[in-house]
Design goal:
The protein is α/β, with parallel strands linked by helices. It folds into 2 domains: about 130 residues, NADH:ubiquinone oxidoreductase Nqo5 subunit (Beta Polymerase, domain 2); about 35 residues, no CATH class. Helices cover about 20% and strands about 20% of the residues. A 6-stranded mixed sheet has the order 1-2-3-6-5-4. Strands 7-8 form a two-stranded parallel sheet. The N and C termini lie far apart (about 110 Å).
Length: about 210
């Protein structure tokens, strides 16, 4: 009986016509890698924190460590007595620096920053207190005489008034200079054109 099975065709498949061709789909772009989380403050605990909180209670708003640096955030109204305590009871006998930071969107836009150092302990400590624009904060000249010029510089650059300062006036700029150069809303090219014309007899080059 003859085999009726037909052999499979060995002819090559027909080439697709131009009308049949489909563009290859573009590969999706890989998602951007997530940004690693930056360093963040962590709660600071210890004997100094316990003693300070026991003395001043709610006036110690925060005790944290950031990148190994300990700091207190305190009520501005009690800054002088807190600084006396840190000097006399905790031996932070040097005010290494006093400066400020401007946060224009905050109700209390300025943060006054005190960098303290203890020679007996060989330790550093930062103290921060927030004040609003034109809100005075007590001078700490009676605690560390070094504060005299440092507070004048903060007043000169930010306009922060230090209540009780013995000689609060500008230290870098002329007394009649307008504006405070380290405020965030003070444009980098801004200067007192009138003062330049009157005192230097030239037009501003800005």
């Amino acid at each position: 009986m003859p085999d009726e099975t037909k052999p499979e065709s060995t002819a090559p498949p027909a080439a697709p016509t131009a009308g049949d061709a489909k563009p290859a789909a573009a590969a999706p772009k890989p998602a951007a890698p997530a940004k690693p989380a930056g360093p963040a403050p962590v709660p600071w605990e210890g004997e100094l924190v316990a003693r300070t909180k026991a003395r001043f209670g709610a006036a110690i708003l925060e005790a944290s460590t950031f990148l190994g640096q300990n700091y207190f955030v305190v009520e501005a109204a009690r800054i002088e007595e807190i600084c006396f305590f840190l000097r006399d009871d905790e031996q932070y006998n040097m005010l290494a620096d006093l400066t400020a930071v401007d946060y224009p969107k905050k109700d209390k836009r300025f943060e006054v920053v005190y960098q303290l150092y203890s020679f007996p302990k060989n330790e550093r400590l930062r103290v921060k207190a927030a004040v609003a624009d034109k809100e005075p904060i007590s001078t700490v000249v009676k605690v560390w005489i070094t504060a005299n010029w440092l507070e004048r510089e903060a007043y000169d650059m930010f306009g922060i008034p230090f209540a009780g300062h013995p000689d609060l006036r500008r230290i870098l700029l002329p007394e009649d200079w307008q504006g405070f150069p380290l405020r965030k809303d003070h444009h980098i090219l801004q200067q007192d054109d009138q003062w330049v014309r009157e005192n230097l007899n030239i037009e501003s080059g800005q």
